[in-house]
Records
---
Amino acid sequence: MKKLVVIGIALIALVGFTSALQAQSARDYISIVGSSTVYPFATVVAEQFGKTSGFKTPTIESTGSGGGLKLFCAGVGVEHPDITNASRRIKKSEFDTCQQNGVKDIIEVKIGYDGIVMANSKKSAPMKLTRKDIFMALAKDVPDPSGAEKLVPNPYKTWKDVNPDLPDKKIVVLGPPPTSGTRDAFVELAMEGGAKKFDYVKNLDKKMFKATAHTIREDGAYVEAGENDNLIVQKLEKDPDALGIFGFSFLDQNADKIQGSFVDGVAPTFDAIAAGDYPVSRPLYFYVKGAHVGSIPGIDAYLKEFTAEKAWGEDGYLSDKGLIPMPDEERKKFASDARSLNPLMLQ
Amino acid sequence: MEASQTAVNGAASATASQLLVDRSHRETIGQQFVENPRMTCRNVDVYYGDKRAINNVTLDIGSNEVIAMIGPSGCGKSTFLRCLNRMNDYIDICRVEGEIRLDGQNIYSGEVDVVPLRAMIGMVFQKPNPFPKSIYDNIAYGPKIHGLVATKSETDEVVETSLKKAGLWEEVKDRLDQPGTGLSGGQQQRLCIARTIAVNPEVILMDEPCSALDPIATSVIEDLIDELREQYTIAIVTHSMQQASRVSQRTAYFHLGDLIEVGTTDQIFTRPGHQLTEDYITGRFG
Amino acid sequence: MSDSTINAPASLAAMPSKRTIDVVNAGLAKRYRAEKRFRIYGVTAIILSLCFLTLLFVDIISKGYTAFWQTKVRIDVHLDPEVLQGENLQTADYPGLVKKSIRNLFPDVQGRKDRRLLNGIVSSGAAFQIRDLVTANPDRIGSTVQLWVPADDDVDMLMKGHMPRDVPEDERRLNDKQLAWIDQLQREGRLQKTFNRILFTVGDSREPELAGIMGAVMGSVYTLLITLVLSFPIGVATAVYLEEFAPKNPWTDLVEVNINNLAAVPSIVFGLLGLAVFLNFFGLPRSAPLVGGLVLTLMTLPTIIIASRAALKAVPPSVREAALGIGASKTQMVTHHVLPLALPGMLTGTIIGMAQALGETAPLLMIGMVAFIVDIPGGFTDPSTVLPVQIYLWADSPERAFVEKTSAAIMVLLAFLMTMNALAVFLRKRFERRW
């Protein structure tokens, strides 16, 4: 009896390790990592791809854009991912790391746009904000209200303090933590945009400007609500005065509960983001490891699936999930680049 | 020797106490040695860490005799008993000096293995401690691990004879598959004795085997000890002087780690040679 | 009182001025009050914790029980030989067949946009259902089959009452036209709620109506199997050695202190360790239950070792003496007597450790098991995820219908836990010597 147990354990361990080695020598599914913003779109494509192509369904990890690129650039070989998603473009430094580690051919595919919305509960009136308002309400240090050319710790308590046209409500904004790509994009697009409205802030040296525009106040007006956007939606329902920051797809799915705030006079609608009118929107990308095409089965088929009109087109299934498609011209360009596996060049 | 001979007038006599060896005398008096010793202990010291628990004990245990070890609590009699089959080995801080021989072989020498040693010197403990197994398995366990039995029928035989020797057979023969822990206290202790003799040892050590039992169970065990003497050498530690006088032929009196006096049971209880022995058996302390 | 005075011995009467019985009686009421208070605290604590537990269960079950049903639509699909000709039945235009069937139900719907809306009533899974049917029975090509196919998640939400009808049109996921179509389907008896088999038979999906937890369940099973097979023998062996055989010296003290420390290390650290050792050094595959099991083994080991040592310590010394006194060797004493008696305690510790491992996500994040994985894993090295990760991923999905799926997945996790605990109780009962 005891001997049997011991032999059983040994067998399981043996089988486990040998099959591990086998699996390692030939991975037959695509491994995708990267941005949590692109995740909802990439997963839909992967699922569709898995069900229709006959290849195995790719695995997709949501590691964040930076984390994904780090894994992606770690090297060539089955233990490294084939594709990484990013809610921003690859940085020069990341590209260099890739090159150093032998990841030479990187195919960049832009897949569309994502709008970052500030939304509140339907129980209160929609907010009509400008990027300047957003900057003044959320930055840690803001230009002195008296007009002197210096920065003071953010004194504003209510939206009315920020802008007399806004309602007399306490500033409470629920948003993602600093590790989130959504937060990066938000500070870059909304806060920077607002900071540039002040001439002397704009004329600060680059580092100072970034520090000013990117630092969010920490006195309780901005509440870090974690990466779970559903949680923010729930909290907004409870507190009609609060605003939440998240991706457009969550607004799209919860349109009966929350409404997007106007930014610079434009409401965050599908059409407005697609037309480029809504200011807080960003492009989404994924990057493919050229060296893996051919050795890992299905990568080219996956590229084809993603860049097909039925996926990322105006009426494609990705737009149902809240992805804002690129204009026709751009789509065509990226589709042909992707299919011909044109490697990315960064100088 | 001289002292014991001078103490002729019996223990209880107040006037005789002048004739006894003084309380401060700590050398062993009496008949430490026997003609045909089974075990010989020479200058045994036992230490717990830095503390000396047994002090220079020299004593013989003769064949087919029951030797009782008595003394007040903490006198070292149990510690000494446990040295005889090296049960103290597993107490990390315990150290034994001097020599203890079984049939001439020093049991503390490097060549002696404790496993066969304990097969030869069995032990019965203060609290009945049957294994949480069936009555049958309790008895069969020892013979099985030592390889004394090969077949089921041999095992059955050993179980039956052991239980018979322990006087338990009639009471349990119909429920051998029942848990040993389900028996009464006295039965459990007899089961433990049966378990010990199933291995067919030469010496049986008993550490206050009746202290947890009522008088009736005690007398059954005492009768059993008397019967077992024919085949085995028995060393018994007991708190009860009556028990010592009933079951043993020789008695050793321990006091604070010293072996004070050894003699025939009859002599110790009627004509003690040492003041301390006399104090103890007359109930002045202990 | 008076007769007790009489009975009091004369010698005692002289000593204290107050009699013990009077002092005791005077303080008695206070003592009983304290006792009662203490008991009330205890009962309150139990009631409070039961309330929280009930609240949790009620919340999860009330949110999640609807997930066990699924709205299905009956469509009549003509398996058109024109569409289904050619060698490769896999790649035929099945979505087209579905669309055509729906359009046949509503012949008067015109316009591209409206037709798109209409197609949206049926899940995209319908096409795969037809594909599987045709692949299995190629002889039915040419006939018309009646099929119950899953409805889109929005329709499902509406049918289950999770989507309000009485709000303005632009605030609903379904507009007035779609509502009218759904109502018409319902009048025709083409909508029905059935038991949600999909939930229990398939892996993850981004379409809530097609998402199942089987993948996660199998992932959990494989992962825990590895964890159990490794951590139980290693943990028990470690505990036995440390407790029974190891000499007492600074080294074993150091080992002991470190084991206790490891039990308190945040689980994410084990994930990082797993990433560094198993993935980067040994080159094991990412996202595999094998690696997940190894990492969770590291995490569970201290728990098992500590519990097993406590169980060994609890074995009465009399049993050890009994075995040694008969001449059993140390190993025989341990394996024949001590271990069987300690086993129930060890099993309890193991189950606690396994339950902990079952609910863990943080260490799995680092080794790639927090991932979108559709295919049900078939072995220890297939990419897979585990139940708590599935819960996390669904909770983080934008689609409304995932809310009930999340609760359903939590229920399955709880059921999993209860099964494990029941198994533990059963095993303990079997091993426990009840004498």
Note: Chains B and A do not touch (no CB pair under 8 Å).
---
Amino acid sequence: MTETVESIVNCKNVSVYYGQKKAINNISIDIGRRSITAFIGPSGCGKSTFLRTINRMNDTIDSCRIEGTVIVDGKDIYDPSIDVVPLRAKVGMVFQKPNPFPKSIYENVAYGPRIHGLASNKSELDDIVEKALKGAGLWNEARDRLDESGTSLSGGQQQRLCIARTIAVEPQIILMDEPCSALDPIATSNIEDLMSDLAKEYTIIIVTHSMQQAARVSQKTAYFHLGNLIEYGDTKEIFVRPKDSQTEAYISGKIG
Amino acid sequence: MTKEHINSAFDDDLNELAKLITTMGNLALSQFTAVIDGMADDEVKLKSLIENDKKIDHLESEIYNKTVEIIAIRSPQANDLRRIITAPKIATFLERIGDYSKNIIKRRERMIAEDGDLNILKKVNGISEIARELLIDVLDALARLDAKKAKLVWEGDEELDAQHNIVYKKIYRGMVEKGSSASDINALFIAKNIERIGDYCTSIAEQIYFIVNAEMLDEKRPKTEI
């Protein structure tokens, strides 16, 4: 049964081109607020490209051109009046490889709130850093070493630091592009556990190559193939009784 | 299988599981066939067939082990998962069918020991044939994953039930009219065992339907009560 969830992202007829090449073909999708949505599909299917349209990360690529509308929280994010800096705070992103700044753990988290003017004094900033580190499940491990370099942490801790950095600027949506593919199984479990907690407050969209991860963490799954959205629905339905034979073939390990 | 997995070892696993089920089904069928073909004939010895039931039991545990192994190693999804998860259930149904064949042999041995008249077992020939047909058809439907044929088996069990009722009443009436003998009672039990084999064929048919359609047959099965 499909639950009715209020949507926060509404994409309509979105196509993305890299030069002449069409990477995303006319995709329409609504994504529910405070839920986890997984994008799955073989390499090159367009899932990461599509993810990056949601916070305009594709703008950094000169040859990239986008058609259609992407509405985030009621606003057309490709409207010329939109400033991408606050957009990317509102729609944060966590990447495949943890990429902390070569600064202290504290500074990694404090940097965003400071440039966005979220704290008016040191004490407020301290509170934001603590709250973000707690939210990312890193506080207990990091509280006594806030001055140490972020790069001194383990891979899993670094990824949680990146999540803390993302949530410190009070986003509504967190985009995760294969956030666990560089992590060991324990660190992966920690991140997955954290995602469930984060979804109480934030909307999470995750691109993952691990079908099991998509099945474990998400409520909705979208299957992409060759730039098309083949099937989108409740994760349980997608993994138990997919409607499309291409989805079935992919999740069963028959195409890649 | 229409599409092969990228990881061919997964196909090997699925083929091995399917082969175990086919072997088990063939054994259960040949056991039942030998039993019903020979049971009314004094000259035929069936006791040694009891040993075959151990092979059927052994296959059941092999199927359980293979199922657990595939789930643990391959993380099957969708249709694959349904094929795998139904395997031990189907194995259990086949094992029960094997048990009923064994029960028939044991009852017949008792009849022989008591100098009973095996001729009475000719009265169950008709239902034996229907049960055999159901078993052949359901094993065929299983090998081909043919949900339509499985549903025909599922519906066809009604005829077996109806014929069983007729046989039951015929033997029962004879008991009332001429007085009951131990052979009559044994024949009634044997008829019931055959009728139960039909029930297990419908249970297997339900699993086939589930594998193919991802939902259980939820219609009410036509039934004839005694």
Note: The first helix of chain A runs from residue 47 to 53.
